[in-house]
Batch of 2 targets.
Target 1
Amino acid sequence: MDSQLKIYNSLSKDKEVFTPLIPGRVGMYVCGPTVYNNVHLGNCRTFVSFDIIYRYLLHLGYKVRYVRNITDVGHLEGDHDTGAEDKLGKMARLEQLEPMEVAQKYTVGFHDMMKIFNTLPPNIEPRATGHIPEQIEMVQTIINNGYGYEANGSVYFDTIKFAESSGMYGKLSGRKIEDLMAESRDNLKKQDEKRHPSDFAIWIKADPEHLMRWNSPWSLGFPGWHLECSAMSTKYLGTQFDIHGGGGDLKFPHHENEVAQNFGACNCNPARTWMHGNMLLLNGKKMSKSDGNSIMPEELFTGNSAHISKGYSPMVIRFFMLQTHYRSTLDLTDEALQAAEKGYRRLMEAYASLQKMTLTGDGQRSEQDGEVAALIKGVKAEMDDDFNTPKALALLFEAVSKINSWKDGHQSMAGLGESTLSALKDLFQTFLFDIFGLKDEAAAGDNHFKTLDGLMQLVIDMRQDARTRKDWPASDKIRDTLKELSIQLKDGKEGTAWTME
Ligand code: AMP
Ligand code: ZN
């Protein structure tokens, strides 16, 4: 564990050498999904990014306690803190379900999707509704410490008092308290209950039609969205822990308010390192379901979307995500996915070839041995540099070129040491599968897609032959039968692609 891991801390805005609070152990909290509808691919990107971070910490030998919550109450429409409808409550009303049925349905869907993308489960996955007493207790502590006040059954956090005493409010998100104060919130209800426009609700008195509510010393109500993460991270990781993560869109207000609440409750910043993943874009715009600019993972797998020409497998999509650093935006385009598909296959094929390679003869070690050894070191160094997956991958692809030229006989393996070859094999095995979390879809039991694709290429060729022969009944029969099977053919410049509805 003599790693030189450096992590970019959103709070200090600097890359820092990572030193855990307790040697050998890491406490990591990542904000999980709000389970009111199916996860979109943008959400998946954030969870895949943190999965790779988790896997790398495990690889370095840390004993990690990874906590990722499920938000099933308190997240209001438009991320408001009062006056808007609860996202889960709204869905329950629209679908005529119990809010807990909504939460259960989409939690199961979320878990399924996380498995499809081969992410490891967190060690603890607490639900906000399962921690109401802890949240009520935290509100009470914040009031007792003078940072919270009650107004008409709701409780608000006093941001000005906190800003004046700590100088912290706005530090994480880079917002100035004066700007927050000046922001017009006239469009929101219940603003008159607040002492300052920048104050936010930590307990909200429920309107009569509100479905989810609990008894508290202040009212029959429900906790503010930000509170759950403060209460649950404290419960499972302590008042201070190592890493807090989430998507960059959570910096404000969610994480900024979490910091304020933890200070308000115990006078300490909960996390030493704040990590934020960047957004997945679709055609240059943030992927977001509420804006209608989103693609669901299933649509990507089947190719059933106007944005893409064909389907892509989950591991191709995971590989596509790895090609960009977690702090950079990632723009999803059909061309980029096609390139990722080729890259992923090339990597897996090189891995398979490498594992079969043995050294012939035992010549003098040459320059090549040193080059490969440097490559191996380089891959690790890139991951130590704030989990730089694109640069680590670029080095692995340098190794792929070498492997292919050894295989094709363009370059001799002579001069490569036995231990260097075995270290290269280990490197591929460890990075591809344990750290990057890829699976060899072609080699593994998930061969169905490849088989189906092969069969479809045969059908497409047969249809093309029939058309060339002007055998229209045969070509129509193929098209109609495929249609009955919900398979569509799309003729394009590059040939014919197929998609499944
Ligand atoms: P939510 O379900 O809205 O609470 O979001 C779950 C997680 O997905 C949070 O960490 C968000 O920051 C993240 N997220 C939402 N939209 C995107 C996006 N377009 N790209 C990457 N992450 C996102
Ligand atoms: Zn959170």
Target 2
Amino acid sequence: MGWTRREVLVAGAASFGAVANWPVLAGGRRWRGQEAYALPVPQETPASLPLLNCAPAQVDMGDGVLRGVLAYNGMFPGPTWVARQGEWVTTRLVNGLDEPTITHWHGLIVDHANDGGPFLAIPPGGQYDYQFQIRQRAGLNFYHPHPDMLTGKQVAMGLAGAFIVRDAEEDALGLPAQQYEVPLVIRDASFDKSGNLVYNPTSSGFRGKFPLVNGTLNPMLAVDRGVYRLRVLNGSNARVLRLALANGAPFTVIGNDGGLLARPAIVTQVLLGMAERLDLLVDFSALGAGQGVALQCLDARWNLVQFVGSGKVGVSYTPPAVLSAVTALSGPSQPTRTFSFDGMSRINGKVYDIHRIDFTVPFGVTERWRFKTGGNAPHPIHVHGASFQVVSRTGGRGTLYPWEAGWKDTVLLNDKETVDVLIRFDVYRGLYVMHCHQLEHEGSGMMANFEVV
Ligand code: C2O
Ligand code: CU
Ligand code: CU
């Protein structure tokens, strides 16, 4: 099933020559001038993977230079996990780093022992066995380290990978698949003089100088004349992406963190916070052989991926008016709890303490959580153990966006904003964390422990 790296590389190589004449986005940063490299599609792994080894590795980011990173099973990003609803996932994490780590499955609803929160970190040389069942709907999730105070460093150094869940509801839509479904793991990165990844955060977090997509510099993908399903993750530590196509063409959002939206939404840009995901349909049927269009981050003035027409016929696809049955949670109209994200390291005035349980939440009860910022945003707020529905944003942007509908596990809080979500923990009881997913904020203490009882 799915993509092989080789097919994509061959397809990319075929139109390699077409890239040279592309206009460069004014002011945009480029890696070594005009060169572009074939976008690799990370190798897939099925639900059971005997070994998940995290260790230093040398990888080629497209330009042939071997660069030092931290990698899962030597891959950057790590293998793309694919599992179906109901399936069991098993793996053994082995810590080949010289510091503690643990792997968290961001967006997967699993019990405490499998959640990979900071309490479960293992020492260098240690191992941790995971075994959990997929008990949620289809969607794009991901995995990354979560040791207290070290998440930002380990993610920036390369440890992250996509985790795709599939189910019958999604199957029934007949969405573009195989080579027409492409994961885009987007992040920024900086390099030392030898070209290795470096982690050099400033007081406002780690912001890399170059974009990488699926671990590649200046990536390009040959696309057939048809519709593509792009599965996008913002895997940056501290960079919000404002995604748009270079020609301003509209595209269709069909899903986000928690899977399919109820209805497709047509947009021309999306503001995507750290750890947020998107499921997009992009129609390249007007792209002739050798013609190109880039997916950009308008704020960074970056071309993220250049799509180049292959001239071949692809697939056509029109999404149905209703994609999925999303039942709205009904809950209190006043907040059950309010969390103020203060400075760069506190929630409700408190710095994270791994040994302190900050609050308890009743199992199976819908609550309304209010997230406020005391400045220093953006704060993408993430909760483990349940998905939520975003019900209001006041102040700041003052509105909700179509890509924030349906189910979410991370919501972007900008300066002056107050965001309310409805949330219900109805799968597992136990100890979880909520935190800001600006990873330097998380690492300096903008995180809380809570127990579902
Ligand atoms: Cu993606 Cu608690 O993290
Ligand atoms: Cu998470
Ligand atoms: Cu924050």
